[in-house]
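Lecture 7 notes. Example A: sequence first, then its C-alpha cells.
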Amino acid sequence: MSNNRIGVLVMSYGTPESMDGIEAYYTHIRRGNAPAPEQLAELTARYEAVVGGVFPLRENTNRQVTGLQTALDAIAPGRYACYQGLKHASPFIEDGVAKMAEDGIKRAVSVVLAPHYSTMSVGGYNKRANEKAEELGIEMASVESYHLHPKLIEALVDRVVSALNKFDRKEPIKVLFSAHSLPVRIRESNDPYESQLMETSSAVAERAGVTDWEFTWQSAGRTREPWLGPDILETLQDVADKNYKQVLSVPVGFVSDHLEVLYDLDIEAKAAASELGMKFERIEMLNTDPFYMETLAESVEAKDRWR
C-alpha cells in the first residue's frame, strides 16, 4: 500500500530505556565489545547520580519527536509522519526506516537532533539512514545542519539572557560555550564541526550582548587518539587563575537534558568550579522549546521542498 505522506526520520544518539539496559547500550557503543566491570560500574554510577534509578532521559527524545510532529502539522497538516531512529539504542536508525517502509512511505527526510554537522556524527547518522532507505526503495533526503537558523539562535539567546540574571551583574561573568569533543583527526578533512560551533556561539553571544566568552570542549571519549581540547575542566582552572568568580555554561552543541549535560556539567564541572571558588550555572536546554521545534520543522520542510 502506497503512502503519500513524507516520512521524517528523527535521529539522535540514544540512551537506555532503564537502568537494566545500560550494559547492552554500552556494549553497542563499543561495537559489540562488552565493557569491563569497572567501566560498566562507572557508567552506571553516572546514571544513578543523574536519575537516581528513575529513568526519564529517554522521554526527552520521545517528547522532541512528538513536538516536531506537532510543529510539522502546523506548517503542512497531514503531509509529514515522524519516526524515531537511534544510533545506539532501540529503535535503531535502521528500525525507523524499516517502519516507514512497512507503512508504505516512499519519500522521506532525515534530521538529527544536533545542529552542527560533522562527518563523524551527523554524517554517520545520515549515511546509515540513506543506506537503509535505498535498500527498501525509499527516496531519502537529509538535513545536514541548522546551526544558524534564526529561531535556534533566538531560543539560545533567550536562555543565555535569562541565566545571566542568576549572577551578580556588577562582577565579571565568564561565559563558556561548549560541545561534545571529537577526535582531532576531523581537522585533516576540513570537517565543518568546529567552524559551525564557533558561528553559533558568536551569533548567540552577539545577540545576547555577551563579550566575555570562550569556547571549550567536553565529554571527550576515552581512546588513545587525541581529542579536541581544552576540556571544560581545564578551562575552568584557567578562568579561575584569571580571578573570575562566576561562570555561565552554554552547552551549545547539545539540545536536550542527558548524561553529558546532567553529569558532565551539572555534577562534574560544577564541583570543579566550586573547588575553585567559582559560582557555576548552566542555561536551560532546548528540549521541546517551540522555537527549536519550529527550527527542525522548517529545516525539514526546506529539504523536502528543494530536493
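Example B, a different protein, same format:
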Amino acid sequence: MQMDDDKREAILQRLRRIEGQVRGLQRMVEDDRYCGDILNQISSVQKSLRATGKVITRNHLETCVTDALRSGDTDAAERTYDEIMDLLYKQIQ
C-alpha cells in the first residue's frame, strides 16, 4: 500500500479505536445489556469502519489507481477500472 507514514498512523489509530469499540460490544453482550444500546454501538462501529474505508479508498485513488492510469498501459488501466468497480459495488451491498 502506497501511503505516507502520517496517514498510515492515523488509519492505525482509527482501527485501534474501532477494535476497542468491538471489545466494548463484546462486554455489552456478556453483561446482557439492553439490545437497543448494543445496536446503537454497532451502528457507531459501522460508521467508524465506513469512515476509515473512505480514507483508504481516497488514498488508493490518489496513488495506485492514478499510477496505473498514467502509466499508459491499457491492460493495467482496464484491470484498474475492473478493480474499482468491484470495490465500489462491494461497498454498496
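Note on Example B: The radius of gyration is 18 Å. Residues 12 and 52 are 9 Å apart (CA to CA).
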